[in-house]
Amino acid sequence: MFATLRSLIYPGNGVNLSVRGLKSDLHIKWVRPEKIACWDPKKSGDLSPMEPPDMSKPPIEYQDSEELKTANEYVRKVFSCDFMGRRYATQLARQQLIDKVKANNLDFTSCEVQIASMTANIRNLQEHYKLSPRDKNSRVALKEIIDKRKKRLKHLRVWDYKKFEWLLENLDLMYHPHPLYERVERKKSLRRLTSKWCDEVKSKKLAEYRTELDNEKEKFLKEKLETLEWAKKEEIECGVEPTITDADIENARKQLEEWKTLKSIQE
């Protein structure tokens, strides 16, 4: 066989075997996966966007001011976030997010408070990046904050898993750990797709063969019952001690009835 192959491949025979021109019969098409940016909420894990700030409220510095509560409408408007700028409204939204997770009024440096503060900054920068996609400084800052928050979440996940789950639920987050780096290659992906396609074909063939056997099972059980009855009858007529008992025949009849019942239920 090897000599025959060698004679076919040998150039002196005038036979040229071109491998590049061959095409696979497998119906597989590989498409390069779309790259998801690190600032995208799908990858950062922010399931909900930043809550729109209430611009009519005063900034944090004037929240407890009794004079502002009793002041007239124009004074409250001057001291509102709408008049003073969006930066103050963002600070107010960040404080509202921190209030959901802080342990007490003096909690400013705990791990969950830091994560809540970073989450507010991330969502604010994500909204800003949608409006200004060419702002490179904001993009770099967003990447850094996402990495810092991921480190904090990893630390909390190791040392207090119950609080970690509680924090994710309150902040509406999903934790995405750093994945193992794997280079996207066409040949490697095609091998995996081919293996997956072969498994599907094998499962399909086995399912078809199983269906074919199920369709012939009733016929087989009938022939088995008739053969057992005929063999026992022949042994008795020949005067030989029967090797087939009534229990064997009854067991075969029971299998046939059970299969008929199961088939009628499936139909």
Helix/strand-derived category reads mainly alpha
Secondary structure: helix percent: 55-70%
User: What is the strand tally?
Assistant: 0
Give the terminus-to-terminus CA distance: 54 Å
User: Rg from C-alpha positions?
Assistant: 37 Å
What fraction strand? under 5%
Point out poorly predicted stretches. 1-22
| Main sheet characteristics | none
Q: How many helices in DSSP terms?
A: 11
General form: elongated
- Average pLDDT taken over every residue: 82
How do the helices and strands follow one another from N- to C-terminus? HHHHHHHHHHH
Layout of helices and strands:
Elements: H1 2-9, H2 41-44, H3 66-69, H4 73-78, H5 81-84, H6 86-99, H7 111-131, H8 136-159, H9 161-171, H10 186-237, H11 246-266
Helix pairs in contact: 6-7, 7-8, 8-9, 10-11
Structure description:
Helix 7 (111-131) runs antiparallel to helix 8 (136-159) and helix 8 (136-159) packs antiparallel against helix 9 (161-171). Mean pLDDT is 82; it is low at 1-22. The chain has helices at 2-9, 41-44, 66-69, 73-78, 81-84, 86-99, 111-131, 136-159, 161-171, 186-237, 246-266. It is elongated and about 120 Å long. It contains 11 helices and no strands. With 267 residues, the protein is mostly helical.
Features:
267 residues, mainly alpha, 11 helices, 63% helix, 0% strand, disordered N terminus
Kindly summarize this structure in a few lines.
By secondary structure, the protein is an all-alpha fold. The chain is 63% helix and 0% strand.
